[in-house]
């Protein structure tokens, strides 16, 4: 049975409804047409020059990314600039581009739940629940941005950091707080979650796990007594590939080929 881009979108949005996306976000089909035939889908965290070349080599018809290529208003498409070059190639080769961003973060079984699974977080709830304006069918006590809950047993901040370091292998894991502090409750947000430090603290968490924490955000966390583990943006979200694959395979695996596009690496590396 031949499949179209629209068929892939249906499965993606059953798993991560666009109604779960933050109102500032840009999700959905960004390049291409729903009626376009689709025999092979490529999955990636970002669309980069390396990722696109890999997609070309693997002859994919649709690329599904976590981070939208088109995020802010575009005032010009210059073929001599990085974004314009990517768009030019996508259009010339008739490759579609779909973004599942904060809806993939927030959905049950999405990125934040994956992170929570790694430390067996109990009694889960979201840091930012879906607002009343979200369609009722998409609201859930767990769906929403970030997660908070309890650890199976108390552990030190240092031991928790070590566990996450082994699991996610970030370029550099940063710690705010005393490594010997005993942690019982945790809040988390994959990707760049420094702006949610205050919201994480209101959950009663001892520790907040996220990425991309800025200096002044670190000072704020320190001032309110919230320990923080900055595991990194790339490290906490590269798992989107396996999550998307698991969402697509049961329904579409017998009809289309689903491939991982893994050539891109974390642009932030530690100098050792």
Report on the architecture of this protein.
There is one protein chain. The chain is of the alpha/beta class and 272 residues long. The chain contains 10 helices and 13 strands. The strands form 3 sheets. It has a 6-stranded mixed sheet with strand order 5-8-10-11-12-9. Strands 1-4-3-2-13 form a 5-stranded mixed sheet.
Question: What's the short version?
Answer:
This protein has 272 residues and is an alpha/beta fold. The protein is 33% helix and 21% strand.
**Oligomer class:** single chain
SS-based structural class? alpha/beta
Shape: globular
Which consecutive residue ranges, at least 5 long each, have pLDDT under 50? Answer: none
Largest sheet: 6 strands, mixed
Order of helices and strands: HEEHEHEHHEEEEHEEHEHEHHE
pLDDT averaged over residues: 95
Could you tell me the radius of gyration in angstroms? 19 Å
Please estimate the helix content. 25-40%
How many beta-strand segments?
13
Main sheet strand line-up: 5-8-10-11-12-9
Q: Give me the number of helical elements.
A: 10
Distance between the termini: 52 Å
SS strand fraction: 15-25%
Q: Which secondary structure elements does this structure contain, and how are they paired or packed?
A:
Elements: H1 5-15, E1 28-31, E2 40-44, H2 49-57, E3 62-65, H3 82-93, E4 96-99, H4 102-106, H5 111-118, E5 122-125, E6 128-129, E7 144-145, E8 147-156, H6 157-168, E9 174-176, E10 182-188, H7 197-202, E11 207-210, H8 215-223, E12 227-230, H9 233-237, H10 240-252, E13 257-260
Parallel strand pairs: 2-3, 2-13, 3-4, 10-11, 11-12
Antiparallel strand pairs: 1-4, 5-8, 6-7, 8-10, 9-12
Helix pairs in contact: 1-10
């Amino acid at each position: 049975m031949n499949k179209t881009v629209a068929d892939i979108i249906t499965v993606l949005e059953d798993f991560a409804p666009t109604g779960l996306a933050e109102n500032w976000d840009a999700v959905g089909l960004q390049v291409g047409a729903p009626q376009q035939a689709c025999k092979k889908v490529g999955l990636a965290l970002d669309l980069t020059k390396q990722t696109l070349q890999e997609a070309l080599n693997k002859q994919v018809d649709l690329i599904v990314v976590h981070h939208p290529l088109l995020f802010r208003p575009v005032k010009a498409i210059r073929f001599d600039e990085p974004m314009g070059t990517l768009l030019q190639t996508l259009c010339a080769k008739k490759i579609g581009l779909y973004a599942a961003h904060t809806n993939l973060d927030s959905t049950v079984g999405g990125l934040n739940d994956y992170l929570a699974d790694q430390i067996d977080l109990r009694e889960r709830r979201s840091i930012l629940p879906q607002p009343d304006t979200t369609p009722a069918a998409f609201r859930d006590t767990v769906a929403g941005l970030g997660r908070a809950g309890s650890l199976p047993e108390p552990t030190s901040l240092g031991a928790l950091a070590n566990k996450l370091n082994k699991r996610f292998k970030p370029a550099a894991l940063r710690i705010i707080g005393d490594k010997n502090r005993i942690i019982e409750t945790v809040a988390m947000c994959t990707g760049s979650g420094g702006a949610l430090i205050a919201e994480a603290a209101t959950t009663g968490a001892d520790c907040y796990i996220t990425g991309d924490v800025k200096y002044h955000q670190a000072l704020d966390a320190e001032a309110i007594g919230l320990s923080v583990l900055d595991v990194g943006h790339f490290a906490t979200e590269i798992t989107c590939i396996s999550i998307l694959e698991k969402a697509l395979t049961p329904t579409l695996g017998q009809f289309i080929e689903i491939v991982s596009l893994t050539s891109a690496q974390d642009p932030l590396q530690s100098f050792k």
